[in-house]
Design a protein that fits this description.
Helix 4 packs across helix 6, helix 12 packs parallel to helix 13 and helix 13 crosses helix 14. The C terminus is likely disordered. By secondary structure, this protein is α/β, with parallel strands linked by helices. The protein is built from 24 helices and 25 strands.
């Protein structure tokens, strides 16, 4: 059997498709006699635009439309005219939407003019290989480009079998996609490692293979009726998840004129599901869909996969797609990566309550870019999210990321049912003191996501919902079908609004503006551990240095870990000089007023870092294109002062 695996725009062009890599490896094992080809549509689309526009539309424009416009649906809209056979379809709707929301659609509009030719060209190229089956993987804004190509393939060769899968096909979305697009023969919902081989056996030998009704999660046609098999409760075991094969992707990149514009990275998978979500599903999060169950490869196996891929492709930038790191990796995988001596640059999603030691290990292992899911600095808002962490702990994480050379990506989220203006009063007053720490990408009102607790339980505050407005210029479908097909939904705003919302957005914008030139750094005076100097060079604050001795220096060290006033007083009790409770409270209040401390309810956290991290101006770093200061072999810290000396610092 000839099988064509296809990933269409808007897969990031600098990354291989993990789905394609996994399926190629799976089929090599399960069906070694099949001829498997790949079509990397995002890369080919970027090449096509580069050539057709004489270099005017470049890979950076691909990022603007395909990644940065995901909540406006511009990438899908580019191909919607092809899908519906009308170059003008959705044009007026998008123009009205863009005018109301201040969205720039110039680049997307220019790209749309080339979409029909690209789809025709691609269909001819794929059919020239005479495939029996063309499989599409679809995530986020890959639906419409994939559907447009699938429709053209079936128009030209009706006997061709078209199969869809991927995150856009999970749960009811997959059935809606199938029943509204008759040219799609099958949709695999959920994980494909077990379902796809069974489906291919049926396609190859309908009378002898498994009937389509026996393939878990499969959508198939029973005459003119779309059937949807029940999805399996069985998840794919880590031992059955293959190691991706990226050989054909590498060949495509190496021969592409786009290669000079991009920095290729490798994509790996250590785990599926979310161990935190199994216990406390974050209320706003729809990731993991119907497969929350956490499963992880052993650390040694993950390292062996990375070792093989790095050696084979000579690429040191690694993107892990795990929604959360397996904590066991701090004992096996990360030490192994740290010992390798390789100059890896890995991206990982982690929980935000990691210890300084764990963050240091991440830095040493090459995990230089993390996404810790900070989301907010309001403890009450974090409780509403069910994040299991406090605002004070998130502040500590931001500080320690700078201490250990880690680039930290996060967004400030708001708009949770039950939020109060008072939840933001102290946060807004203190945000200017954080200007030296890595800022969020912005402050954003949450949007309702399918599969999230907010979605599955309307009583949580979003009972009124409808498909996000952007889908009106993407799909020509009635609202009841869109309600099953799409991932994002619009709701009446919840939580804070008005002046508080405006203040938060403005404060975050100011944070981002002041960050590149702001530092608040601790120093041991003359190398002595007895006196601490805090050099304040923050935007919006007087440039000065503070000198702390005695119990004040010791207290600042203790507050690196976050302490209440009574707890701090107990820690200071054994020192040569012990402040009275009243004097300690006065010192804490002054520390907050000077921006040296952050107060979260009754907990105080110190804000100075131990060295100046490498800084990038706004716009200089995209996504995970990061270069950070190497981690020092031994980080200076208050904990380096022996306990007895710490108490006697003066």
């Amino acid at each position: 059997m000839r099988i064509q695996l296809t990933t269409m725009p808007w897969q990031p062009i600098e990354l291989p498709s993990l789905q394609i890599g996994l399926l190629r490896a799976l089929l090599a094992e399960a069906r070694p006699d099949d001829e498997v080809r790949e079509f990397h549509g995002s890369l080919r689309w970027a090449e096509f635009l580069l050539k057709r526009t004489g270099g005017r539309l470049r890979p950076d424009d691909h990022i603007v439309v395909g990644s940065e416009s995901i909540f406006d649906g511009l990438g899908d809209w580019v191909f919607s005219g092809v899908l519906y056979g009308d170059p003008e379809w959705g044009v007026t709707r998008l123009a009205e939407y863009a005018e109301r929301r201040g969205v720039d659609i110039g680049t997307a509009s220019e790209m749309r003019g080339h979409a029909t030719e690209f789809i025709a060209h691609t269909a001819a190229e794929i059919l020239a290989e005479a495939p029996d089956v063309v499989g599409f993987t679809s995530t986020f804004m890959q639906n419409v480009s994939s559907l447009a190509l699938a429709q053209e393939l079936k128009r030209r060769r009706p006997a061709l079998t078209v199969v869809f899968g991927g995150s856009n096909c999970d749960g009811p979305m997959g059935h809606a996609l199938h029943r509204n697009h008759p040219f799609v023969d099958y949709v695999v919902r959920g994980e494909a490692e077990y379902a796809l081989p069974a489906l291919l056996a049926h396609i190859e030998q309908p009378d002898r293979g498994a009937p389509p009704s026996g393939v878990p999660g499969l959508c198939w046609w029973d005459g003119a009726v779309s059937r949807a098999n029940a999805e399996s409760r069985r998840t794919v075991a880590p031992a059955d998840i293959p190691s991706p094969d990226y050989d054909l992707w590498q060949k495509a990149v190496d021969s592409s004129p786009v290669a000079e514009y991009i920095h290729p990275k490798l994509v790996v998978e250590g785990a599926r599901g979310c161990w935190w979500g199994e216990k406390h599903h974050c209320t706003f999060c729809g990731l993991n869909g119907s497969a929350m169950s956490f499963r992880a490869k052993p650390g040694e196996r993950l390292w062996s996969e990375i070792d093989r891929l790095v050696r084979r492709h000579q690429i040191l930038d690694i993107i892990t797609v795990d929604n959360i790191m397996d904590m066991a990796y701090f004992k096996d995988f990360l030490p192994r990566a740290a010992e390798s001596g390789w100059d890896l640059r890995m991206h990982y999603e982690v929980k935000s309550n990691l210890t300084p030691e764990q963050l240091a290990l991440l830095g040493r292992s090459g995990a230089v870019h993390i996404q810790p899911g900070i989301e907010s600095l309001s403890s009450r808002a974090l409780d509403l999210m069910d994040k299991g962490v406090s605002g004070a702990r998130n502040i500590r994480t931001l500080r320690e990321c700078d201490n250990h050379g880690l680039t930290c990506s996060w967004n400030y989220l708001y708009g949770f049912p039950g939020e109060r203006d008072a939840d933001y009063t102290d946060v807004l007053e203190q945000l200017p003191a954080l200007v030296h720490l890595q800022p969020p990408g912005g402050a954003f009102r949450i949007q309702l996501e399918r599969f999230s607790p907010h979605f599955t339980d309307p009583m949580r505050g979003f009972a009124e919902r409808h498909p996000a407005e952007m889908y009106r210029h993407v799909y020509d479908l009635p609202e009841d079908e869109l309600a099953d097909l799409v991932y994002l939904f619009d709701t009446p705003p919840a939580g804070v609004g008005g002046a508080v919302e405006e203040s938060l957005i403005r404060a975050v914008r100011d944070w981002r503006t002041g960050y590149p030139t702001s530092t608040l750094v601790l120093e041991l005076e003359n190398g002595s551990e007895e006196v601490l100097l805090v050099h304040d060079r923050r935007h919006g604050w007087p440039h000065r240095s503070h000198r702390l001795t005695g119990w004040e220096a010791t207290a600042l060290c203790h507050l690196e870990h976050g302490r209440t006033a009574p707890a701090l007083l107990r820690l200071l009790a054994g020192g040569a000089e012990v402040p009275t409770p009243g004097r300690l409270v006065q010192w804490l209040d002054r520390g907050v007023s000077l921006g040296l401390l952050y107060r979260d309810d009754r907990t105080y956290v110190s804000l100075p870092t131990w060295h100046v991290p490498v800084r990038f101006a706004e716009g200089e770093m995209r996504a995970i294109e990061c270069a950070v200061e190497p981690v020092l072999p031994v980080e200076p810290s208050c904990s380096s002062v022996p306990a007895g000396q710490r108490e006697a610092v003066g």
